[in-house]
Every structure is written in C-alpha cells, then in structure tokens.
C-alpha cells in the first residue's frame, strides 16, 4: 500500500468543523495524518470528526476552542500533545467574513461600511481573523520547538489581502495582516526548522460565502471577479494546503500562494471581444499558470532534480504552441464556454507565451532555448516578487472583467511593459555603478552581474569575480548613484576545498549540476561541507545565502548532495534590507572615485 504524504504526522486544524478547515482535515487524514480539529460548537465538531473517521478510517479527535482566547488555544495544543505526543502540521483556518460571522453557529451579520461599522464588530473580525491566527501560530510553534521536531504551519489568508472588497474593509485588513504575519513569523522560525506559509483563496463555496451566494447581486459579483467563471471548492484549497504541509514544499517558507494567472489573463483579455472576455481570461489565465506545473517534478532519492526541471521544457519557446494546445484542449472539453477551438487556442497561446518571457526577466534563470541549449536565460530586470509590478496588473484584470472592457486589460499590459522597461534602464545604471566601483578598487572583473533586490528596482545586488574571489556589494540607484560596500568570499575550487571527494562520485556530479544552476557562482561556506549560490541573499551586500548544498566527504560514492535552504536569515537581515533601501550605509559614487 502506498504511504501517504502525511503518514505518522499529527495535524491540528482550527475552524475544522466546516469549510476549508474541514476539507483540510479530511484530505490530510486521507494522506495518513492523525487529526485534531477545533472550532466552536461541540455538535458540529463531533459530526465533522465522525464524517472524517467514516471516510478515511483515520484517527480523529476534536477540541472545542475559540481562537480569540489564548488560554483555549494553549489548551488545544496541549490536548493534541497529550493525545498524540507531538504536533507536525497546523492549519489556521478559523475565520469570519465581512458578510457572515461563522465562528460558531450564529451566522451573525457583520457587514457594514466602515464609517457606519460598530467598533465591537471591527474588533471581532480582527480578533478572529488576525489575532486568532497569531495565537494558533504562537502556541503551535512553542510545542514544535519544545519537541525539537520540524513542522509546517499553514495559515488561511485571502485574495482580499491584495484586492479590496467594498463593504469589507475589516476583512481585507485582517487578511492582509495574515499574509504579513506569515512572512514575518516564517523569518523568526527559520532557525527552528519550522516552515510558515499561507494560501490566499478567492471566492470559495463555504459557509462563509453562503449569504452572498444566495443573493443574486452578491453571486454575480463573486463570479464576475473570478476569471474561471465559478467559485472554488474547499477540496481545491485543501489540496493547496496539503502541498504546503508536506515535504514536497520543503524549501518553501514565508510564502502566500495566490492565483498567478494575472499576466496571462491580461494579455488574453486585451485581445478579446467584450462578450468573450471572461472565457478569454480563463483560457489565458490558466495557460499563463500552466508552465509552473513543473514544480511537481521532484524525487525522494535525488534532492537536486527539481532544480534541473523547474523552468525547464515547460518554459521553452519551442514548447509554447504545445503547452497552449494542451491547456486549450483540456479546457475546451471540460468547461462550458462560447469560444470556438481556434479562439480558445489563441487565448491559451497568448497566456502561455507570456509566462516564460516574464520569468526570463527575473533572476532565477529560464531555459528558453531548450532543447537547443541548456543556458538559463535571466535578464535581471525585475525581482521574482514585486508587488509594484503585480498589483496594478491584477487590478486591471479584475476591473476589465467587471466592466467588460478589454481596453482596461490593455492598460495593464502597458503598465507591465513600462515597468519591465524601467527595470532594463535601472539594470544598466546599476551595472555601470558596479563596474566603476570595481575599477576604483583596482579590480578588473572577470565577470560581473547585478540583480534587483527583493520587491524593488532601487536596490541592486552586485557580484563580480576577481583573482579567485567573489566581491558582493549593493548599488542604490535613484536620482543619485550610491554604493553600499559589502564583503568578499573565495570562489569554490573543488580539488582544493574538498580534496577527499572522489571526482567520479555522485556528490561531485551534483556539485557540477549545482554549478550549472547557479551559473558557476559557487563558494564554500560555513560549516564545512556547505556550498552556496553566491547570487542570492536576503540583504544585497551580504553573503549570507538563501540556499546551498551540503557535501559529506565521508559518504559512499552513490550518495547525493543535499539541497538545503539557509536557516540563518532573520529579523536582523530584514532590518538591514530596509536600511539599505533608505540609503543608510551607502555613499555617493562621486565621493568614492
């Protein structure tokens, strides 16, 4: 019998009596987890627990607890420990919407414009949605740390964290807080090997949206804002949470997963007629997301396999017509729509074509020219994560759908192209500064790269090679040109740094695979046996890496190197990044030359 992805794991799920929480409990139990669900209402909890037992034959218990009260959440975690001995996974799914108060069974309406909203209603929404998540994370992490076992925390945020919903200011604010809490708490938990992520669902068929579904205008609004033309299901969200809970996402933390079809949807919409707008958005949006299905290519025996296949053939230019054909063919058969197959294929083609080109604008590297070349194309003119690029584009997509005006989607595309063009200009400015400063130090770089810092086009990381060393600095380009001095590190020399490693061993081959992935920007790092990709760090002028591989010279020749994210990134690095963005510690280039 196949082993479930959560076999021998214990999962605690708040809000587990209904909706996404209940779906997570059921799905996790199917994958072998032992379950503790929590909610308000003993009858609801027992019914949910019995349904899960009947469906999966799994071990399920329940604890009645209100996430608003610290002592009840602390007791919930302790009861889970008493029952099962440890906690491995936590899903913070208890929540309340601006339209229906669902913690418990009263369904009290809390829908108010903010200027009319009673303060106690505002406080209640923030208490449940944000403070409740904080308390759940806090007490779960305490037990994980005390037991010394790695863990995964999954918070339920919302797409309302990024797209405002009129009449639900409290809900939007609370969910935006959950997204930031997830990111910040993940940084604190790195040293304890506890991953913290979130999912940001759109409109889902849950008790939270029942009131809006029953109202014709509310239902029309939800469908109109959803490019796929339907509400999501709790099971679909549970599958997303399962990915974050299990080891398949072992190198992912501090992330909130949202639908990622905005760029594809925008281009497809801009080419469509108003009456076909939604269908074009669905075909284009899903095709725009499809290349990233390669994240599911991994191996339990080869830790570096995912590095080779992420942004591999699915992102190649030659694969665009094939990928678009697959998406169009599947959707054309499964979904009712007004398009001919030719129209569906055009929409899918436009959406799919944007993905690889956009990824190539980032720093990660994309195999655009596969199978003719394995070169990783990285134009380095936009960060992998940049809200200034994504949010205006996403807003244009949503407004275009609601107003049925393709021209608004075109505005989004114009913004995207303008922002990417600005990134090209900033890249050249940053590169000029980096080269000038290298020469000012008496260095003639063998090669030099600059890449944008996290979520901005102002602060750039500079890396250049000179006489067997890598020099890492930051460049700040606004109306001024500024230099933020960093440090240096020796370049990796396998024969020198790992003399006992057999050249024909699997680990030696894995070093070469990692060298290809990192464009040969490799350096030895502490502790001995840790090889890092010098291009990536939380702070642009710092060497402290985001990831690397570990080598064991005493292992047998068949053992693989291990890919590990760096666990030494914390609040200090976040503060250092913010200071550099403000220009603290940087000096004008004219003063240095």
Automatic annotation (TrEMBL):
Q: What Pfam families would the database entry show?
A: adh_short_C2 (PF13561), YdjM (PF04307)
Domain of life of the source: Eukaryota
Q: Which GO terms describe its molecular function?
A: oxidoreductase activity
Recorded hits in CDD domains, A to Z, give: SDR_c
User: Transmembrane helix among the record's keywords?
Assistant: yes
Which PROSITE patterns does its entry note? ADH_SHORT
Keywords assigned: Membrane, Oxidoreductase, Transmembrane, Transmembrane helix
Task: Report the transmembrane regions from the record.
Answer: 313-332, 344-365, 377-401, 408-425
What InterPro entries does the annotation carry? NAD(P)-bd_dom_sf, Sc_DH/Rdtase_CS, SDR_fam, YdjM-like
Similarity annotation = Belongs to the short-chain dehydrogenases/reductases (SDR) family.
Name of the protein this chain belongs to: FabG protein
């Amino acid at each position: 019998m196949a082993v479930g992805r959560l076999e021998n794991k214990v999962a605690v799920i708040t809000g587990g009596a209904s909706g996404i929480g209940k779906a997570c409990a059921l799905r996790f139990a199917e994958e072998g987890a032992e379950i503790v669900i929590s909610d308000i209402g003993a009858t609801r909890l027992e019914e949910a627990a019995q349904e899960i037992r009947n469906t999966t034959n799994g071990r399920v218990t329940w604890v009645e607890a209100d996430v608003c009260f610290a002592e009840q959440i602390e007791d919930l975690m302790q009861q889970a420990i008493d029952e099962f001995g440890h906690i491995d996974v936590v899903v913070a799914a208890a929540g309340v919407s601006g339209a229906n108060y669902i913690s418990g069974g009263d369904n009290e309406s809390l829908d108010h414009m903010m200027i009319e909203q009673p303060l106690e209603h505002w406080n209640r929404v923030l208490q449940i949605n944000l403070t409740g998540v904080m308390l759940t994370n806090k007490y779960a992490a305490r037990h994980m740390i005390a037991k010394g076992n790695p863990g995964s925390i999954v918070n339920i945020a919302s797409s309302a964290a990024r797209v405002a919903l009129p009449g639900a200011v409290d809900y939007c604010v609370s969910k935006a807080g959950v997204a930031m809490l997830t990111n910040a708490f993940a940084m604190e938990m790195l040293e304890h090997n506890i991953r913290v992520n979130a999912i940001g669902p759109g409109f889902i068929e849950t008790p939270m949206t029942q009131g809006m579904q029953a109202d014709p205008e509310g239902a029309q609004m939800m469908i109109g804002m959803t490019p796929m033309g339907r509400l999501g299901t709790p099971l679909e969200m549970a599958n997303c949470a399962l990915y974050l809970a299990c080891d398949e996402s072992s190198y992912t933390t501090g992330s909130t997963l949202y639908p990622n079809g905005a760029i594809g949807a925008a281009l497809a919409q801009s080419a469509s007629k108003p009456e076909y707008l939604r269908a074009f958005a669905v075909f284009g949006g899903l095709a725009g997301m499809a290349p990233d299905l390669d994240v599911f290519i991994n191996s339990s025996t080869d830790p570096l396999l995912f590095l080779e296949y992420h942004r591999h053939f699915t992102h190649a230019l030659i694969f665009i017509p094939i990928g678009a054909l697959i998406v169009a063919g599947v959707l054309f058969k499964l979904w009712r729509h007004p398009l001919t197959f030719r129209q569906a294929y055009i929409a899918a083609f436009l959406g799919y074509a944007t993905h690889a080109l956009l990824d190539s604008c980032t720093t990660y590297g994309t195999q655009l020219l596969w199978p003719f070349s394995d070169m990783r194309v990285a134009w380095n003119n936009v960060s992998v994560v940049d809200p200034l690029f994504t949010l205006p584009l996403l807003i244009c997509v949503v407004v275009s759908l609601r107003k049925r005006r393709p021209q608004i989607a075109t505005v989004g595309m114009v913004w995207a192209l303008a922002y990417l063009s600005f990134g090209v200009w900033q890249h050249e400015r940053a590169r000029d500064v980096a080269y000038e400063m290298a020469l000012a130090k008496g260095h003639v770089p063998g090669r030099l790269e600059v890449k944008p810092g996290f979520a901005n086009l102002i602060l750039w990381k500079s890396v250049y090679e000179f006489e067997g060393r890598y020099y890492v600095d930051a460049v700040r380009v606004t109306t001024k040109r500024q230099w933020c001095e960093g440090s240096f590190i020796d370049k990796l020399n396998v024969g020198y740094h790992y003399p006992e490693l057999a050249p024909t061993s699997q680990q030696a081959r894995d070093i070469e695979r990692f060298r290809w992935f990192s464009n040969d920007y490799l350096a030895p790092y502490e502790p001995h046996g840790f090889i890092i990709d010098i291009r990536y760090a939380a702070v642009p002028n710092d060497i402290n890496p985001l990831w690397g591989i570990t080598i064991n010279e005493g292992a047998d020749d068949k053992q693989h190197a291990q890919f590990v994210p760096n666990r030494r990134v914390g609040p200090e690095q976040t503060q250092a990044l913010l200071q550099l963005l403000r220009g603290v510690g940087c000096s004008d280039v004219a003063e240095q030359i």
